[in-house]
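COMPLEX REQUEST
Ligand: fe (ii) ion
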Amino acid sequence: MAENANTEFEFIGVNHLAPVCRDMRETVDFYHGLLGMPVTTTTQFGPEGHEQQIFFFDIGGGCHLAFMWAADAIPGAPGVASPAGFLEDTMGRDLTKLTAEEIAALPSTLTAIGSMNHLALNVAPDRIDEYREKLVAKGIDVSEVKYQTMDENCRPVPIADGSSPRVFMKSIYFHDPNGIQLEFACWTRAMTEAEASLSPLGASSESALVSS
Ligand SMILES: [Fe+2]
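STATUS: Structure written out below.
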């Protein structure tokens, strides 16, 4: 198993993420009404016509989604701030069976530098199939269960079924009314050292990853 001890800071998880919504009522209906998240804190500020609200939704483990709403919000920007294409339409495909041209023709899920591409909520591995059925029963358009795989070169590999030892994560994908890409995900095994061995790419790739 890859060693992953932080000797600099003792982080104890995510306190909150702060996505932006177009309508707080609609957002409460989705995250509290459909997904069941308790609303733990609500705040409002700003002058008339420029009101802002922040509602905290409990996602377990001491973590929250702090949804922000503003009367004079900046409009959504699919393809920049959020994916133009949804992962349920792309990751539902077995990329190991597609050609490079077919992969290039899929709807783009790229977003701008600094954006949050998607949000994955952690669930128990033995509940993801049940939770998929539950989302479907609630009328949510959700992907099939996606089995994330990796070989010793950190590349995805074809598998015969979800019980393959190559599987390290299971995911399902759907999206919220704001166009936020959501995922339920679960780790299915510990990762090996080889599975965290890639050199990072980019303009500054000269500065090697410090490994100790
Ligand atoms: Fe993900």
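REMARKS: The mean pLDDT is 91. Residues 24-34 form the longest helix (11 residues).
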